[in-house]
Every structure is written in structure tokens, then in C-alpha cells.
Amino acid sequence: MPQTPNIDTPLIAMEGVEKWYGTFHALKSINLMVRKGEKIVLCGPSGSGKSTLIRCINHLEPFEEGRIVVDGTALDDSSRTIDAVRREVGMVFQSFNLFPHMTVLENCALAPMRVRGTKKAEAESIARKYLERVRIQDQADKYPAQLSGGQQQRVAIARALCMEPKAMLFDEPTSALDPEMVKEVLDTMIGLARDGMTMICVTHEMGFARQVADRVIFMASGEIIEEGEPEVFFRNPAHARTRAFLGEILAHH
Amino acid sequence: MDYKLDFSVVFDEMPDLLLGALATLGLALAGMTLALIIGILGVAARKSRFCVLRGLVIGFVEIVRNTPFLVQIFFIFFALPMLGLRFNPTVTAIIALAVNGGAYAIEIIRGGVDNIQKGQIEAGLALGLHKAQVFRLIVLKPALRSIYPSLTSQFIMLTLTSSVCTSIAAYELTSVAQIIESDTFRSFEVYFTITIMYLIISWMMMSMFALINRHYFSYPVR
């Protein structure tokens, strides 16, 4: 298969990343390459460092050692590189984190206007475009508190997309949702994956992992224990800890 | 009691009293506005990464909140001229009210800012906004909303405290009343009247705050 050079260069590269919280070793020599368009699902028991890992990528958490390169920008602690990375990487949080004092439309138009300097009218048309994409355009003038959890999370996805990021990070996007709302958010994410978005998702939704993930990565105690294509990963996990974890997770689903 | 009530003095002097009330309202509004600005900038400085700035704000708040307002206004009016800073009574009164109200506003607003969930700040940062933008665009309004009742009652206090400015002969309701009283000796009538007038001023302030609240903080929260 012929390969163009930019398929070889990863969009996100983590090399030997180490992170401590005081004396607690939260991430241990993390190596992770994510190609453009690749979908990664990160799973593992709570406290295993999976959220910390993706939060290092957009520098919500600083890291002590190693290298993180996003779209050619190597993160150091300078605001120049941090800004550059955050402009290209969107994030969706477990608790939605919509801004309560802004309408749905204002939530979405904020960053394009303030970060990219887009004019208001254009920012709002971008916002409407992505609200339509997550099928919530008719709620544009409502405030977050007037929406259900699932709707709020879809708005949060649209808000991140409005920056037209090159990659999206999802930090347990369905964990705070009532069961009946999980599907609408997962469907939105699946749509995004089908459209070729580069995604790293921290989630325990193994159905989602099977359906869209190119690779599933299992973490425990701050380390990447094992990774593989979903079929192999689920059918034939190599490590005992992975098997134990999958046993727990799948028993509940 | 042979003291015969005679409110005719009060009626005769009503134009002066109303002007005094207007002056009080003016001092209070100017003091409050400046106090709010000091409060917001103070919190921003208190939250900045420059420790000198943080220290200055902490020192300012400590000094102002632990000394009497009367001493503060005397300091500005009588002590600062020794350093070459001279203000007329009205300007002195406004500065004193702004400084005093500002220190309390810093503490109140800081409480509101501390109550904002960390996720709100992270969401702003993740979108690429700078810390200052996150404070101004994301944190400030919900923070002000959450402490609005305490802040406005502090501002009512500030309005009433403006009567202390009579001590440097600033032109306001209490000083007008004092002059009328010393001319006419109708102490009860005069002070009874301005008591009512202060009450009305407070009520007017409260309705203004309620109006602002309805207009500016009307967004729903669960």
C-alpha cells in the first residue's frame, strides 16, 4: 500500500511521558502514537491514569518528563505551544462544563470569536452548522440548564467542533449520563468517527470501542498494559489484569 | 415632656434635605461603582500568578477591613495632604467609600469565584482561551450571581456609611440635617425625617439591585 509521508507522522505523539502528583507516580513512561484519523479507546480501572493521560495532551495537566508533540508542536510549558495545541485539540468532559450564563449558541460561538478572532456572524453560522451536526439546532437559544444531560453533552461536542479541531479528546463523556441518554451521545461520537475525526476516548462503553476503535488501550497504575485492535483485544487479552478488568466491565453490560 | 413637635421646620427646609439626599445617593452610587471595579480587579489580582500583586491585595483588604471607616476617612482627608495629596470633602468621601467598599467587595467576590467549578475553567482553557479571558468571560458573571445578595447588602451598608462623611463636612444628607438642627434645635423632627429618608434611599437601592438582578442574572440554573 502506498503511503504518503503525513500518514507516517503521527498527529499526536507521546514519548516517555512521566507524571507525578507529589510522590504519586501518575503516568509511567507513556508512549503513544496517534495517526491522523485514528480512533483510540482508553480504558482501565479508576485511578489508572487514563484521564490524566489525555489531559496531558492539551496541557490541562503538566507533565514532568518526556515529550508530547501535537500536529508538529512540541509542548513545553510556554503559553505559545500550549495555545497552539489547544487551538487544534478539542475536549469533551464527563460533566459537560457548558457555560451556564450563555445560550447554547453563545457557548459554541465563544471560542471561535475569542480565540480565532472570527466575526460574530460567521462564528454563529459555524455554531449553527455544528449544532445541526449533533442534531440540536432547535435548542440554540436555550440555556444549558434547560437541556437534558444528553443534549448538554451533544452541545459540548458541538462547542469543541466549532474550533474545527484536528483531534478530539473525550474524558468519560457518558459516565455522568442517565442510561437512556447514553445512546444519543455515543451515536454522535460514532458519526464523528465515521467522518474521519481523530479521537481519543476514555470510556467504558465497550460496544462503542468494538464499533469504532482502531485500537483499544488498557491502562492500570499509570502504565499502558496492553493495546490492540478491538477484536483481538476483547477476544484474546494477553494480560491477566486486562482479563480481570474486562470481566468486571462486561459483566455489568 | 414639654417638647412640642413642630415639623414645620422640616417642611421649610425640605428642598435642602432633598438636595442632601440626592448628594448621598450620588456619593453612594459613585462609591459603589468604584468599589465594584476595585472588587473585580482586586480578585483578578488576588488570583494572578504574581505574588507581589497577591500580597498587595491581601494587605489592602486586611488593613481596610480591620480599621474604622472614620479613621480611614480622616487619614485621607487630614493625613494624605501632609504627603501632598489633597482632595476636597466630596472627592475624599467618594475615595473613602470606594476603598472601604472595595475591600469588602474583594472578599465577597472572591468567595463567589472560589465557588466556580474547576470544570468551567478547564473547559475555557481547553477551548484555547487565556486565563484572563476565562476569568472575564466564563468565571465572573456566574461568580457575581452567586454572591449577588451579599454584595448588594454590603452596598446598602456602604450607602448608610456615607453618613460618616459628615465628619469631614462632605455635603450629604446627614451634614445637611446637622446644619438645620443646629440652626433650629428641632433635633427630633430633623433626625426623624432623615431616618425616614435613609430608609427610602435604601429601598430605592434595593429595587435598583432587584432590577439589575432580573435583567443581568436572569439565566436559569437547574
Describe this protein's structure.
Chain B: InterPro entries: AA_ABC_transptr_permease_3TM, ArtM/GltK/GlnP/TcyL/YhdX-like, MetI-like, MetI-like_sf. Chain B: GO terms for molecular function: transmembrane transporter activity. The complex is a heterodimer of chains A (253) and B (222). By secondary structure, chain A is α/β, with parallel strands linked by helices. Helix content of chain A is 40%, strand content 24%. Chain A contains ten helices and ten strands. Chain A has helices at residues 5-8, 50-57, 79-88, 104-114, 120-133, 149-161, 179-194, 206-212, 230-235, 240-251, and strands at 12-21, 24-34, 39-43, 65-70, 73-74, 89-92, 167-171, 198-202, 215-220, 223-228. Chain A has a six-stranded mixed β-sheet, with helices on both faces. Chain A has a four-stranded antiparallel β-sheet with strand order 2-1-4-5, covered by helices on one side. In chain A, helix 4 crosses helix 5, helix 4 (104-114) runs parallel beside helix 6 (149-161) and helix 5 crosses helix 6. The longest helix of chain A has 16 residues, at 179-194. Chain A is globular and about 55 Å long. By secondary structure, chain B is mostly helical. Chain B has one domain: MetI-like (MetI-like fold). Chain B has nine helices and no strands. Chain B has helices at 8-12, 14-46, 51-65, 69-79, 89-114, 118-126, 131-161, 173-184, 187-216. In chain B, helix 2 crosses helix 5, helix 6 (118-126) crosses helix 7 and helix 7 (131-161) runs antiparallel to helix 9 (187-216). The longest helix of chain B is centred in the first third of the chain and has 33 residues, at 14-46. Chain B is globular and about 75 Å long. Chain B starts with 7 loop residues before the first helix and ends in a 6-residue tail after the last helix. The mean pLDDT of chain B is 95. Chains A and B meet through helix 3, strand 6, helix 4 and helix 6 of A and helix 6 and helix 7 of B.
